[in-house]
Amino acid sequence: MSNFQLGLIIAGAIVLIVVVAHNAWTHHRNAPRRARPSDGSAPAADDGTRHEPAFDGPPLGEEGGGDLSGHTVDPRDALQLPVPPAERRGGLDALVDAIAPITAEQPVSGDAALAAMPTTRRAGSKPFAIEGWNESARQWETPRPGQRYQLLQAGVQLANRTGALNEIEYSEFVMKTQQFADALNAAVDFPDMLHEVARGRELDQFASDHDAQLTFVLRARQAAWSPGYVQQNAARVGLIPGAMPGRMVLPAASAGLPPVLTLAYDAQAAMSDDPEQSALREVSLSLDVAQVARGEQPFARLREVAQELCEAMDGVLCDQNGMPLPAMAIDPIASDLEQLYDQLDARELSAGSALARRLFS
Q: pTM higher than 0.70, yes or no?
């Protein structure tokens, strides 16, 4: 074999090695980034334990209704019993509920009240609830076994994110309440339907004008991300697995409250047989303003978490339309939110309060 032939062989081998190496490097660069082995400082992935805070509220359901809005009695005149004020924060509240006082001829047991409860806790799309006045505790409460009540009240929410209370829903509320009162041999005093429906429309208009949900999108600059890679980096900034696949949350300071922030990505990628082979090009980071108290400084934490994730995952911060968000476009949002918080406070619907969580849900 001549030196020329040997040189050709060596050159060909070198070219082949370069091509193979280039292909391997290209594949590695374009492959989804994977989570690194856990160093024990933070959970790298969802271990199946769900920690997402849940919203307060009764179980959901629906049931048909009839129109009994013309039925009115005045139990306070009949039995001469003082009716405690319904206005309070949490539970039924005259600010966001249409409330009907119920007066029994004789004290009824909590067991009897529970047995007479409607099977569902909604009138149409609106939450419905019944409470009893605990004389010893001097407060309204959901009827409890072992207690006795002579004064009760039923209420239906005037508005939520599905819209304002309408006449059909009010009629269903009347039907459910009347059936409950009849079972306990009690009298019920319904508020005027047209007045309550008008209050619902006004409250719904206020809620529509002051409902803010902010969403930032984090997009990969180059290599895509695997679900495990996203989970690992999100865990390092304080997020924990949510109740659904493809969801992580930043919990509030107090247990049982809605999360401060929610990170979401493709649920199908999270549930795939081999999540590490799934490629994510973007994730969303959102804040439901009315659900989170101002004291949590949610917007500042939203910016901080978004910036840390962008730096750690080589991403770019965008709006929901995919347009990059420079700092100059984000700064004005903070002052707008402060005005929104002030307006909610003035209406006694402070962000993060029990009433605001009910109205904006």
A: yes
